[in-house]
Amino acid sequence: MTCVCHHQVWETRREGPIKPSNTKMSHDGPFQGLSTYAGDFGPKEAPYHLAKPKHAYTPNKAPFEANTTHRSDFVLRETVPAPKAIVRGTNIPTSAGPFEGQSLYAQTFA
């Protein structure tokens, strides 16, 4: 357990916060209007060339057949019709006779 009576107060000297020194650089010369980056990496001349192809497109002279490789490799087959569902009047099976209030469970396991 920690209590105020267990601690001894030490006198310390108060110091001010540590401030960074002034790092602003001063330059007394005239400003040329260019940064170091702009002065080192100026515009360069690039060779000019047209983006057009040298030859015009000529389509194939063979007749066009609208048949792909997938269609020729995987020929469609006839589909088998699905069997029809059996329709019943009700989902509850009917009993053979009236319920007499007795069960087989009560008679055999009593």
Task: Explain what you see.
The chain is flat and about 115 Å long. The chain contains 3 helices and no strands. It is low in regular secondary structure. The two termini are 70 Å apart. The longest helix has 5 residues, at 36-40. Helices cover 14% and strands 0% of the residues.
Q: What is the element layout, followed by pairings?
A:
Elements: H1 36-40, H2 69-73, H3 104-108
Tally the helices: what do you get?
Answer: 3
Strand content: under 5%
Mean pLDDT: 78
Unreliable stretches (pLDDT < 50, length at least 5) are none
Q: Order of SSEs, N→C? A: HHH
**What shape does the CA trace take?**
flat
| Main β sheet profile | none
Structural class: little secondary structure
Give the helix proportion (percent range): 10-25%
Report how far apart the termini are: 70 Å
User: What's the gyration radius in Å?
Assistant: 49 Å
The count of β-strands is 0
Short description:
The protein has 110 residues and is mostly loops. It has 3 helices and no strands.
For the structure shown, list the relevant keywords:
3 helices, 14% helix, 110 residues, 0% strand, little secondary structure, flat
